[in-house]
């Protein structure tokens, strides 16, 4: 099994302590949840549902190990897209003296490939790179290296989102590492690149943040820039899958560059977790494309659409899909349906099923309604019996007892699997797993059900989640609960590190503590953490604060990162050369011990690692 570079160290660290890896099996033909399926082998060796050979029709090429054929496609005079380097398109606009591109890829290597392919159609220099949003902008360093005078244009939120770890779409930057772990599971990053468990669609690696170039221009809503005689108007208020989108209108060519239209059923909710994707705001972006009179629509994830009527019909149908999901969810709520009922309540009309750009090959449709419910009224379903909840462990324990004990629940799960009710079988075995997550029998049965489900699913995201967790349950890999790449954490300033660190306080350990620790990092101004009875306030300027610090910790930025990432013990960090404490060193060490070591490998596991 090949592991991605990012997780190589984590896997090597933990594998010697893991239990014996177990094999997972799936039949190439069978029935799942009462529906016959057939798995076929795709060019990279991946096994996936045969229906996917036709469901990727929007891309006009046979499904392979990437979405798109590698080529430079001419759309109109001076208009191209660079395709097939990763799971996205790179729109190209040729001007009189140069070239404008929309996004730059996921790494400097991809950036260099973009330049090579661009040179097959024009020798003009890249004069501007426009960032569609914060996800595909990490080939920029390669472009800047070759064209140092190029402009880099972005939504003002791009740089701050990346600096705070919100590139994955986190509402709260403190939980960015949790969402990064979701990214790992969503995009096959810890699974083989070849063989039956490989991704059947586009593989997306964790971006190389070293390739990011800070914007030279941060534009505002409606602003117009003239680049080499070409007017471009920018729209920044359309939040699609992140809040740093940049939709671009080129009036002289009737062209829109956008990330609102994708070439498949849009991920209205991301299983990794993210900010709420408001259907009304997204449909406003789509209608903006229509109302501008767009004749060429170039999209980050969707094939180019050419022709005013074709663009109009496409974006209207796409917007109608968003509104259908939203409106039917609200209808279900008014009819008294509970959150867990909503996925089965949605019945997609046939004209949506027939649309080549609404194939269900990315996110699973039945996961889209519940976030709308929660956004609209919160978690409570109006049933007074659900005001107070049991923990997962207590609920599982009580249900197992009610069903006649663990052995009986296991039998019921096996029978449900034989009867073709695999979802219920998985629910039953999961009750057992929750009460004893180190029981290898429970782990193996849960893994086998997840593996079969993942193989049959058309949704590549859900497939990757299922197979990745099946691997972890059968000891093929260690799955971190939190992921924070060095490129991100090393770029975080002391204020960002400490404001995110403060939420880790354990109030039971802190008790009645009233303690202010000042931090002097690399001779910068003193900032602080003030703990008052289990709650920590970040102090931006200790010198101006009403209370004098109990102690001052002078340290380097790398030492603060080590503390944040729990790479070393507190005592070791305090004793390192260059670090010093003004005050009682033992009290400082005691105070810092009140904070959870969330990145400690022994703690940072989504699924418990079994000892050999």
Automatic annotation (TrEMBL):
Keywords: Hydrolase, Metal-binding, Zinc. Residues 340-475 form the Alkyl sulfatase dimerisation domain. Residues 487-597 form the Alkyl sulfatase C-terminal domain. Residues 89-155 form the Metallo-beta-lactamase domain. Pfam families: Alkyl_sulf_C (PF14864), Alkyl_sulf_dimr (PF14863), Lactamase_B (PF00753). Belongs to the metallo-beta-lactamase superfamily. Type III sulfatase family. This is Alkyl sulfatase dimerization domain-containing protein. It comes from Shivajiella indica.
